[in-house]
DNA sequence: ATAGGGTTAG
């Protein structure tokens, strides 16, 4: 903003008239402000030229306050409060700001004043308010606004449609969203996008693809935003073939010019198990923003390449791109899964340098980092000292660590904390019960089982799936009905025995070691991966068959699968994240086979 | 262009 600062000096000099229609006008500079400081400088120029009572000028100022990255609804509110008779445009502008702020409910609160003042909501009002409801997960208010939109004859408005669909699906009622969509006679591409996104965000990738197909055969053209959701659905399915098909479609249609699309491609490839393709997309990118860098850091981290994730993170900083909260999630994940406790703590504390306030997810990574490494008491104190209330998930992370490291006493204490918040999670009982069983405390096991029964806790079994030659084999925790289940158990028993021989504990701690896919550990892991391949090979498969999961997921993820199978055999809880990543095909056939 | 809009990957 060096240029505008120069121009401002001119503007603020005494007796300088404001040329309203030239590039020197403060109004012209407002949209170019990149910080609240600059917006305030323009405000000073506006006051100097006596324009501060002009409602249209204040509207522009407020818009500038809500532009990234200078976001300040507090300042916007101060400006708003000085206007004696705000009109609907000013209200709409404030509502849009609040909808995108940390306090979306305030948009709805402000709307009450609109009605009290007898102002009429228009086609700008509903999109902002519905967005606020989506962000606040306020489906009740959203439904009322839906009714009001109908009353005002705005149901078929092109701007209202997508936000209405978005509101329902963000509130988790994707069926309601779908009903709205079906009533729209001529949905525009943005409306299609919002519905495709709705299915994707609610983990219904097949319906997302069905709608994408419908969009393709309509006379509308998909946009790059369509591709973002479609890629995200690919990632949900975990289907690399489908992902490659979409990649070709993207290149053919020129969508690969968009940084966001390339970022979504990186994410898709990583989640479908092909780190190589993810890296190749990243390397071809000419411009890489924070999101693109984060995607590659996360890709390396989730594939177990912790130190590569760290070196990418350092390279990112060197090239002058600012990390954000997601980058830090990636780097903390990398550290915890690579056992780099000191580095992880260092990065966690460096977040403040980037003015990033840690979220519950960052705290979760820290608990995982400390817990996996066996620093259980430290992890416990970490949770105790948090500035926010811990969630059951946070305690659950520590509970798994207690299980890995066999600390029954701490586990008992932790589960009490969990039960204070949520006692309906079957997995928690199972973990502690197994810990009691391992130390021969059968009375405690029985008590826990009785407690589960009394509280009517249902166990939701974890599920893993392995795809061999387009046939998906699903395994549920504690279920031995798969035809090759016994054979698999035998191979995995052998694997566990060998792990014991090299000093590993056949426990969830296996996950810790299995994910250290680097340096001297790598050779060991490759060896065990082969064993695992033999294990998979037992599934009706002659030797030499391509086993996709094993082939594509590479060392670390192989072992992640191994860990999953082993955890299944030992009756442990399987993390939901794994379900997402590995749920690809159904009944031996690509679930999208109908559409392609 | 001349006060304000919808869908968005990590």
Automatic annotation (TrEMBL):
Keywords: Repeat
Residue span(s) of domain DYW: 503-596
A GO BP entry: RNA modification
Any GO molecular function: zinc ion binding
InterPro entries with a match to the protein in the record: DYW_dom, E_motif, PPR_At4g14850-like_plant, PPR_rpt, TPR-like_helical_dom_sf
Swiss-Prot/TrEMBL PPR repeat ranges: 87-121, 188-222, 289-323, 324-358
PANTHER family: DYW DOMAIN-CONTAINING PROTEIN, PENTATRICOPEPTIDE REPEAT-CONTAINING PROTEIN
Name of this protein: DYW domain-containing protein
């Amino acid at each position: 903003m060096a240029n505008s600062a120069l121009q401002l000096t001119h503007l603020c000099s005494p007796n300088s008239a404001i040329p309203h229609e030239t590039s020197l006008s403060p109004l012209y500079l407002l949209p170019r402000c990149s910080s609240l400081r600059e917006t305030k400088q323009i405000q000073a120029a506006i006051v100097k030229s006596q324009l501060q009572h002009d409602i249209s000028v204040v509207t522009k100022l407020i818009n500038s306050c809500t532009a990234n990255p200078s976001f300040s609804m507090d300042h916007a509110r101060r400006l708003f409060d000085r206007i004696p008779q705000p009109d609907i445009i000013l209200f709409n502008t404030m509502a849009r700001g609040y909808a995108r702020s940390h306090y979306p409910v305030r948009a709805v609160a402000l709307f009450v004043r609109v009605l009290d003042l007898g102002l009429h909501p228009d086609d700008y009002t509903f999109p902002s308010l519905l967005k606020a409801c989506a962000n606040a997960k306020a489906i009740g208010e959203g439904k009322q606004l839906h009714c009001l939109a109908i009353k005002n004859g705005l149901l078929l408005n092109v701007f209202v449609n997508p936000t209405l669909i978005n509101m329902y699906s963000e509130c988790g009622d994707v069926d309601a969203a779908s009903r709205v969509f079906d009533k729209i006679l001529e949905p525009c591409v943005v409306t299609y996008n919002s519905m495709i996104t709705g299915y994707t965000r609610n983990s219904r990738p097949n319906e997302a693809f069905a709608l994408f197909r419908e969009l393709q055969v309509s006379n509308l053209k998909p946009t790059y935003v369509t591709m973002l959701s479609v890629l995200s659905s690919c990632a949900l399915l975990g289907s690399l073939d489908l992902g490659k098909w979409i990649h070709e479609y993207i290149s053919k249609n020129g969508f690969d010019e968009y940084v966001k699309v390339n970022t979504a491609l990186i994410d898709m490839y990583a989640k479908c198990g092909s780190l190589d393709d993810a890296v190749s997309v990243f390397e071809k990118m000419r411009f890489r923003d924070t999101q693109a860098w984060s995607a590659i850091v996360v890709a390396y981290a989730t594939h177990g390449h912790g130190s590569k994730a760290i070196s990418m993170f350092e390279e990112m900083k060197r090239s002058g791109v600012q990390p954000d909260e997601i980058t830090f999630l990636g780097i903390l994940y990398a550290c915890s899964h690579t056992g780099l406790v000191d580095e992880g703590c260092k990065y966690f504390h460096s977040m403040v340098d980037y003015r990033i306030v840690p979220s519950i997810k960052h705290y979760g990574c820290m608990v995982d980092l400390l817990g996996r490494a066996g620093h259980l008491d430290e992890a416990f104190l970490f949770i105790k000292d948090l500035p926010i209330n811990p969630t059951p998930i946070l305690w659950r992370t520590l509970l798994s660590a207690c299980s890995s490291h066999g600390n029954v006493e701490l586990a008992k204490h932790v589960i009490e904390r969990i039960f204070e918040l949520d006692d309906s999670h079957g997995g928690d009982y199972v973990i502690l019960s197994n810990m009691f069983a391992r130390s021969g405390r059968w009375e405690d096991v029985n008590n826990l089982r009785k407690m589960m029964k009394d509280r009517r806790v249902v166990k939701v079994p974890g599920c893993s799936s392995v795809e061999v030659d387009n046939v998906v084999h699903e395994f549920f925790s504690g279920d031995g009905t798969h035809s090759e289940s016994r054979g698999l158990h035998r191979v995995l028993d052998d694997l566990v025995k060998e792990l014991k021989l090299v000093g590993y504990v056949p426990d969830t701690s296996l996950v810790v070691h299995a994910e250290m896919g680097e340096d001297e550990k790598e050779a060991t892991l490759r060896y065990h991966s082969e064993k695992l391949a033999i294990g998979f090979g037992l599934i009706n498969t002659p030797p030499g068959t391509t086993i996709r999961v094993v082939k594509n997921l590479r060392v670390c993820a192989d072992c992640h699968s191994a860990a999953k199978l082993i955890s299944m055999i030992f009756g442990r809880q399987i993390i939901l994240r794994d379900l997402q990543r590995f749920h690809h095909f159904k009944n031996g056939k690509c679930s999208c086979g109908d559409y392609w």
